[in-house]
Amino acid sequence: MSILLELNQELSELSGTHLKWSYNGLTEPIHELTLIYVKKNVDDSINSILLNPLSMEYSLNNLEPGVEYLFMLNVVDFNRTVLTSNSLSVENPLVLSAPVIASASGLDRALQIELEEDSNSLNENDKVEFIIRRDNTLFIISKAFDASGVYVLGVADDSRIDNNYTYKVALRFVPSDASQYRVPSSISSSVFVEPTNKPNIPQSILLSANHEPSPYSLILSWTRPNDFAEWSSNFNIQIHLKKTSEINYTLKTVLTADVLTYTISDLEQQSFEYMAKVIYVNRFGAGVPAISNAMINYGVPDAPSILAVSAGDGFADVTFTNNADNGRPILFVKVLANGVNKGTFFRSDYDRWNFTIRITGLTNGETYDFAMQSQNQAGWSSMSESSEIVIPAGAPSMTVSKSGKTLTIQYTPNGRALQQLTALALDGDVAITDEIIKSIDVSQNQSLTAVQTITVDFDCSSDIVNYLAVSSNGTDALTVKNF
């Protein structure tokens, strides 16, 4: 009688490839049983496993998922008779990776579970089994696979889902009969969730710098929690703030109106980096806080410093330096002469002049002191300290006219006071050839701006024929003559 050895695949809910075999006509005990396998359609090594001679099935869990293998049994009995089974082609099943819970939150009589993306290929025909523990009770809620990865398990799914209980939740994927996966995934890690009607986390929180209504302020904005409609009355909003260098937040205010922005203006008058958080509180308690980005508040710049001032003909050059901008670049500077605004200058203007600004349109002979302000996005700085006093000046002028024995001299100082004046006259009597020279006393407090009229009388026998006048202001010497 011939002996038949048949090798088959056994379908199983366990992972891996499961084989079983049968003998027909075997009378002698088996001495040696060997499983031989190799990857199909691949030039790969032939592998073998020495099995228990009494075994009738075997599972392989270390094969590559989705790869097709060829299997064959080789049997030797105690009579040294060798039997070989049929060659069996089997595709090792794909393995479902376990779900990973990204977040879990309690809603009003519901649990919301959000999963991370994975490499599995599932569809709406597959299932997700949620294994849930409440107190000492275990129960399962099965949901159709949702590609969004977000699942809400509510009282409609199971009456044991209720507020103010703590639930421990894990889950696994269960493939459909038509799936390429044969067995369910392993179970995910567990999370704790408490259904509650406390507010969910506010959305889209943003902390930004602001200079209205005052410098060194911040504006905080957000949108309502996604469950706001469930408890949209009898709530408040807590605003907390801290410097990023600090550990703990400080409660700044509690808002009772349904607002979505809040301006924080009572900050220190210096630039610091801050973070804020927004918490909605309803009759069930405080919800999950939303934490903002970090933001540096900013204020007006420090006043600039005037380094030097020099005057010219109708102008003055003011050399300065900007100081701290307090969080926003300085864009403009303003120059005041004797408290009067003489112009606002954009950054590129004075950068081009190496931080020296020329102020024109000044009156020669007038005294001027200068002060400055800097401006950034927050506004104008305080006024700088006043500069030293300077006096613009230009070239003076002088005219001379004669009438009889008198010279009339008009001196226009143009910012430079007359200091010395000398006049010379020649007698109209041709017989008299002597020149008469007079040095005129000039007071010490001559005007820098007003025209000075000086009359010089000469002791001549006849009217003056020719004359010469020489003036000096210590810088300029003027000569007017008629010879």
The percent range for helix content is under 10%
CATH topology of the largest domain: Immunoglobulin-like
Give the second-level CATH assignment, the architecture of the largest domain.
Sandwich
Calculate Rg over CA atoms.
51 Å
Figure out the total of helices.
1
CATH class of the largest domain equals: Mainly Beta
Strand tally is 38
CATH superfamily of the largest domain: Immunoglobulins
Class from helix and strand fractions = mainly beta
Proportion in β-strands? over 45%
Mean pLDDT: 87
For the sheet with most strands, the description reads: 6 strands, antiparallel
Alpha carbon gap, first and last residue = 162 Å
- Residue windows where pLDDT falls under 50 for at least 5 positions: none
Task: Report a brief summary of the structure.
This protein has 483 residues and is mostly beta strands. It has one helix spanning 347-352, and strands at residues 4-9, 17-24, 30-39, 47-51, 57-60, 68-77, 82-84, 88-91, 101-107, 110-115, 127-134, 137-144, 150-154, 167-174, 191-193, 203-210, 217-223, 236-243, 250-255, 261-264, 273-282, 285-286, 290-291, 295-296, 305-311, 315-321, 332-337, 340-346, 356-360, 370-376, 379-380, 397-403, 406-412, 420-427, 435-440, 452-457, 464-472, 477-482.
What does this structure look like?
With 483 residues, this protein is an all-beta fold. It has 5 domains: 4-91, Immunoglobulin-like (Sandwich); 101-193, Immunoglobulin-like; 203-296, Immunoglobulins (Immunoglobulin-like, Sandwich), CATH 2.60.40; 305-380, Immunoglobulins (Immunoglobulin-like); 397-482, Sandwich (Immunoglobulin-like), CATH 2.60.40. 1% of the residues lie in helices and 48% in strands. The protein has 1 helix and 38 strands. The chain has one helix at 347-352; strands at residues 4-9, 17-24, 30-39, 47-51, 57-60, 68-77, 82-84, 88-91, 101-107, 110-115, 127-134, 137-144, 150-154, 167-174, 191-193, 203-210, 217-223, 236-243, 250-255, 261-264, 273-282, 285-286, 290-291, 295-296, 305-311, 315-321, 332-337, 340-346, 356-360, 370-376, 379-380, 397-403, 406-412, 420-427, 435-440, 452-457, 464-472, 477-482. Strands 18, 19, 21, 22, 23 and 24 form a 6-stranded antiparallel β-sheet that branches. Strands 3, 4, 6, 7 and 8 form a 5-stranded antiparallel β-sheet that branches. A 4-stranded antiparallel β-sheet has the order 12-11-14-15, with no helix packed on it. The longest helix has 6 residues, at 347-352. The radius of gyration is 51 Å and the shape is elongated. The termini are far apart. The model has no long low-confidence stretch (mean pLDDT 87).
